[in-house]
């Protein structure tokens, strides 16, 4: 293998690792945003229940 091919292979590996890390963080981010949305929804429901009494 030529040095140029080794460099290209290394760059491709780094790019794939970066994409994989990005996917993992975006998945965790989605779960966090969803959890915050659920918490806000529950708080809104509690306010509605208290105002209906």
UniProtKB/TrEMBL annotation:
<keyword id="KW-0449">Lipoprotein</keyword>
<keyword id="KW-0732">Signal</keyword>
<dbReference type="GO" id="GO:0016020">
    <property type="term" value="C:membrane"/>
</dbReference>
<keyword id="KW-0472">Membrane</keyword>
<protein>
    <submittedName>
        <fullName>Entericidin A/B family lipoprotein</fullName>
    </submittedName>
</protein>
<keyword id="KW-1133">Transmembrane helix</keyword>
<dbReference type="InterPro" id="IPR012556">
    <property type="entry name" value="Entericidin"/>
</dbReference>
<keyword id="KW-0564">Palmitate</keyword>
<dbReference type="GO" id="GO:0009636">
    <property type="term" value="P:response to toxic substance"/>
</dbReference>
<dbReference type="Pfam" id="PF08085">
    <property type="entry name" value="Entericidin"/>
</dbReference>
<keyword id="KW-1003">Cell membrane</keyword>
<feature type="transmembrane region" description="Helical">
    <location>
        <begin position="6"/>
        <end position="28"/>
    </location>
</feature>
<comment type="similarity">
    <text>Belongs to the EcnA/EcnB lipoprotein family.</text>
</comment>
<keyword id="KW-0812">Transmembrane</keyword>
């Amino acid at each position: 293998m030529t040095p140029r091919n080794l460099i290209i292979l290394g760059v491709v590996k780094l790019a794939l690792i970066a994409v994989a890390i990005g996917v993992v963080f975006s998945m965790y981010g989605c779960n966090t945003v969803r959890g915050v949305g659920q918490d806000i929804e529950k708080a809104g429901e509690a306010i509605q229940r208290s105002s209906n009494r």
